[in-house]
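S2.1 Query sequence (Sodium-dependent transporter)
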Amino acid sequence: MSVSRGGFSSRLGFIMAAAGSAVGLGNIWGFPTQTASNGGAAFVLVYLVLAFFLAYPAFMAELLIGRYGQANAVTSMQKIARNPWQKRFGFAVGFGGIICAALILSFYAIIAGWMMSYAVEPLARLVGLANQADWMVMHSIPRNIFFTATFVGLTIIIIRRGVEQGIEKWSKRLMPMLIALLVLLILYVFTLDGAQAGFAAYLNPDISRVLDPELLISALGQAFFSLSLGTSVMIIYGSYIAKKENLVSLGAQVTLIDVSIAFLAGLLIIPAMYVAQAQGVSIFAEDGSLISGSSLVFTVLPALFANMGAAGLFVAFGFFVLMSIAALTSSISMLEGPVSFAVERHKLARKKATTYIGLVILMLSIVIVLNLSWMLDFVAILSTQYGQPLIAMFCCIFVGWIWHRNDILAEIKQGHLNVENSFFWKIWPWYVKFVCPTAIALVFIHSL
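Output structure tokens follow.
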């Protein structure tokens, strides 16, 4: 690894950074919403199984591409290619992932900005700034642009500092804060009336639903999205890992942290929904469907916090700070993909590349804000339901069908000498060649 590229200084640094990328609003916002809409505990059970049996193998494919190439996503994939058409294919997949990451960040920054505004609102009320507090939770173009720009600015500041002093340093700070806040909020919600019914709905699966095709597809899509697959993120993070590290165990540890935090988020939000219901807030329609859906955290939970009196201000502050931290740990990884490409392929200085690309993404975010009624959903669907599954599928095809098996084994053995005799090596090559592309294709077809 060249000194100029930088890299993670420790195993813990990579785990915190990769887990931070994986743990975002998809886990703490998306996962509980999906759970509530798809049978509660049955969805949780299927999600946990698919995360390890399908998402983890695809996750390993992207990490391996990155560590082998020791470069940005495009260059890493082209190093594997052996002829011109494979190099063109590698470029398309790698650059497609970079574009996908930039598109996700453009709408993600808007939602993260809302989280930040809802975090500041309780503080404004505590100091008597009622009008300013109302402004922070009312949709308006100035509010949306201000907090989106603030969030993008924070992301730019971290990425400008590089891998070790930026991504790694801040991931080590933010991830423990996120976990601590999550656990404290779970303990508090557990003491409230109605929480027990929420825990029961979350933890007692209806086994008859686990083979429901709709539930299976939703759980698989959530598993792939939450691990940042198909965005070039894990390829570039893999390129910053030292050759001596055991990628098999590293990937498993990141996957475990990711699904554990998603599970903890469900332990917070599902019981909180039932607490709100016990306080008179409507959660489910007559047919049993979730009323709020994706707007759950901006409707149901603020109503719950408002009913808590003075304590609700502190709980609301803690919850939305948690959401903002989760968003930031993901956004820094999404910006790193295009920045690494600009730095290595076009020889731009890191600080300059980060600022320019960050500002371009902010401009796109502002365009979305000005056309929020249709453009937010359009960009979100384009990047997450179409872009991510396709790029993730092509990465698996690249590793399974183009990269020589002996070369893959040699790469893994640099950090795991006995991998050839392990259960992982007996199963994984066939998984990534046949099962993963097929499973991802099912997610993509379902999204159509």
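The two ends are 41 Å apart (CA to CA). The domain at 11-282+289-447 is CATH 1.10.4160.10 (Hydantoin permease).
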